[in-house]
Amino acid sequence: MEVQCPTCSAKFKVPDTVSVATCPYCGTTFHVHTGEEAGEEHYFFPSMRKDAGGVLLKFLSRQYGAPADITGAKVTKKQLHWVPVYFFYLHGRSKRWSTIEEIRFVGIPAGSPFSGLLEGYPFPIRGKRFFDEAIVGKGKYYEPELSKEEAEAMARSMMESALRSEAMEEDKSLGDYEIEVKYQGLVHYPLWEVHYEYGGESFEGYVDGTDGRVIQGEYPLMSSARKKATALGIGVIVAGLVFGIIATGVYGSAWGLIGGLIPAGAGAFGIFRKGSVKRRKVSEVMRVNKGNTYFRPM
Fold first, then answer.
1. Per the domain annotation, does 155 fall within a domain?
2. 84 and 5, same structural domain?
3. What is the pTM for the complete model shown?
4. In-domain check, residue 103
5. Is residue 26 part of a domain?
6. Residue 185 sits in the same domain as residue 264
7. Euclidean distance between CA atoms 104 and 74, whole angstroms
8. CA nearest neighbour of 229 among 263, 298, 278
9. 47 falls within a domain
10. Residues 150, 212: one domain?
11. pLDDT confidence of 292, banded at 50, 70, 90?
């Protein structure tokens, strides 16, 4: 049967036997026959059945310069963590400009050592269930360290920044604005911590417990890949130097040499920084307004 969300008015289908549904667009949980929101405010996401260690190593094996046999590395630790996250649905708009409007579904990590790791994380909307006490014994469980009010203030601040950024892109002044915030509940989210050994060294990674996305992983960069990156970086510098010398001869000014070396140096620095290191951190998660923030060297 088709139901309509009481929050965002989206229509979607659910089985006829379902009495409570969660909107796949804004995350609101409600009674399908009355349209009233469910009073329960504590949820969890079930953990995946896939092996987190295997998921991490398979992902790393596809990265540039990773050892060909890294999938055979020895996994030394697999720990499931239940991280508390406050979920909010936000709708913000400028009162002056109709084109400046934002709708976001935001998860604010509320505690555990992984709050920084999950900051700005694109948490899924689908799949949450009413909290089950049984999960407490199936991993390391964390209580919230932030209050709901503190988390809501952070969510509002994020929305305000998004509206101001959109106004700047349109070369407009934001002016007065309004933000609607709807609390979606406290969710305990599964996160797998994985440690493995390769070549006598230890490495670690973190895997989303719901769908197996690698939030962050590190791996050893093979020496052949480092040598190629070093050679490429040097080549960029040499090319910049040659271009600068030619420009200096043509224009009779040292600025030609400087103009050739500065961009070449910047490009070479990026190559050295990512390709001439022994360890590399990567992620397959694109953060909101940040891109892939973990594609960087150790």
1. yes
2. no
3. 0.74
4. yes
5. yes
6. no
7. 40
8. 278
9. no
10. yes
11. very low
Per-chain mean pLDDT for the chain? 84
Looking at the structure, tell me whether residues 158 and 266 fall in a common domain: no
- What does 189-246 look like in DSSP terms, one character per residue? EEEEEEEEEETTEEEEEEEETTT--EEEEEEEPPHHHHHHHHHHHHHHHHHHHHHHHH
Statement to judge: residues 214 and 235 lie in one domain:
no
- Per-residue pLDDT tens digits for 236-256: 677 766 776 776 776 666 666
What range does the domain containing 11 cover? Answer: 1-39
- CA torsion, ordered 275, 276, 281, 286, to nearest 10 deg: -30
Residues 198, 87 share a domain? yes
Are 189 and 249 in the same domain?
no
Q: What is the pLDDT at residue 229?
A: 59
* Spatial separation of the C-alpha atoms in residues 227 and 236, rounded to whole Å: 14
- Region 87-96 average pLDDT: 94
* Strand pairing category for 11-13 and 2-4: antiparallel
Q: Are residues 131 and 59 in the same domain?
A: yes
Render pLDDT for 164-218 as a digit per residue (tens, 0 to 9): 999 999 999 999 999 999 999 999 999 999 999 999 999 999 999 999 999 999 9
- The answer on pLDDT for 227 being more than 60 is no
Q: How far apart are CA 201 and CA 166, in angstroms?
A: 45
- For residue 62, name the pLDDT band (cuts at 50, 70, 90): very high
Listed in sequence order, the DSSP H helices in the chain are 52-61, 148-169, 223-251, 255-275
d(CA 177, CA 164): 10
Report the greatest alpha carbon distance in the chain. 82
> Do β-strands 101-109 and 177-198 pair in parallel, antiparallel, or remain unpaired?
unpaired
Answer for the pair 143, 111: CB distance below 8 angstroms, yes or no.
yes
In the chain, how many domains are there? Answer: 3
Identify the domain boundary among 220, 254, 288.
Answer: 220
